[in-house]
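User: I'm writing a tutorial on reading structure tokens. Could you give me a worked example: one chain, its sequence, then its tokens, then a sentence or two explaining what the tokens reveal?
Assistant: Sure. Here is the example chain.
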Amino acid sequence: MTAFDHNPGCGLDCASPDLEAALLSGLATILAFPIFGFFLTRKGDFTTHRMAAVLAALMLAVILSAICHYVFNLHRRYLEAEIARPVQPDLDFMYMAIATRDVPTYIQLKNGEPRPAGVISQWQRCAIGGAACDKRPRQAHMLCKSGEVFVNEADWKYFSLIPKENAFGAIPLKSMKLCAPDNWAEP
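And here are its predicted structure tokens:
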């Protein structure tokens, strides 16, 4: 029954899907043991070995179903936690910035034409991977919750750098003017 243990944080008076599943599983177990036991032993062979085998099979079925429920529930919670986790800098995207307003994003097609992809929401953190300063329009390559996107140079001013969250060892940027030659701070 510990596979169904979940404290909803509001006491016993609120609905809890996990508590409901535990109670239904307990009821099914109480009903299933005698019914399956009757069908598996109805020939009248009530030997100790047969009864032990039937009980072991029934307990194994209950334990396996509880384990399956626990694993699927754990997987669901992991996915929810992954969605809530902020973007982390790495060696490809070393610099952290936060959007100070909603910013449109683009993806690069194979022919090089940018296509609108979505919007980076205000206060969302993104990791900066670099900028394409030789292309028109100039675009920064960023990693956000929505994935890898490109942001036009006109929208770079709507990001604020977060130097304390940069990847370890990254030379800090002075500003969001990513194509400026003197943008790199002295180490």
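What the tokens reveal: The two ends are 57 Å apart (CA to CA). Strands lie at 95-99, 103-108, 114-120, 125-132, 139-144, 147-152, 159-161.
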